[in-house]
Amino acid sequence: MRVGQESMLEKEAVRKIIRRALEEDIRSGDVTTSAALTGSETGQATALAKEDLVIAGLDVFREVFRVRDAGLVFETGLSDGAWVPRGTILATVSGSLSSILTAERVALNLFQRMCGIATLTKKFVDAAAGTKARILDTRKTMPGLRILDKYSVRAGGGRNHRFGLYDGVLIKDNHIEAAGGIAEAVRRAKATAPFMVKIEVEVKNLAEVEEALATGAEIIMLDNMTVDEMRQAVLLIGGKALVEASGNVTLATVRPIASTGVDFISSGALTHSARAADISLKVIRKT
Fold first, then answer.
1. Domains in the chain, number
2. Taking the complete model, does pTM exceed 0.90, yes or no?
3. Is 198 labeled as catalytic in the residue annotation?
4. Of 63, 200, 202, 211, which residue is the catalytic one?
């Protein structure tokens, strides 16, 4: 389980995503911009928050324009993680209007998605405030955009679960079935997993909680349990393992779940169901 904070996105990985997205959108050329503009027009574009939101992805937003045209000038006085009200100017981009217009949609698509994830995450974090529960994401991210999705969760005050299949052992119901039971699945994991990797086991009832405890699992995931069952599970575990709640976690249920005493609450909704934030980009021609 990865619950630490990472300070920055890897620049080259982000540029790879951007280059791929621009290629998908532009291909042989922006026929509309080429037809409507001479290419000599200059000006400024202003990114405006059209709703209250949490900022995430300013560097990504800027990098899209830079990848398209290194001569564009990007300015902002804000930073990721900041909550801003509707009407806030998030950033300005100055220079060639042809370059700005061609990069506009890719820049907004990524930025709006990232801000949307951060904003939804903050709502979950705020709902659990005052409890010990920490809000985690899952691997239910947009394929190819995982580094951006998980960064956005951190910007919203959440934490990251494992990044991929390679950096954490999470034995789920299908693994348990395929291995022949919880005990056998954990035994095999302990025999082969690196020493520093924690073993997490998904359980669906109190009997399986007891079984997972007996194996020495370090983290027990309570999957789709009722609030009462979660409370009983926390008492049963009694600090012998970390406890994660998962399954059908919503803004309406996250507070009651957090109040059961679990250590973590994971929700795929943070990344698979976040609505893109409403952000506009308006151009003003200078020459």
1. 2
2. yes
3. no
4. 202
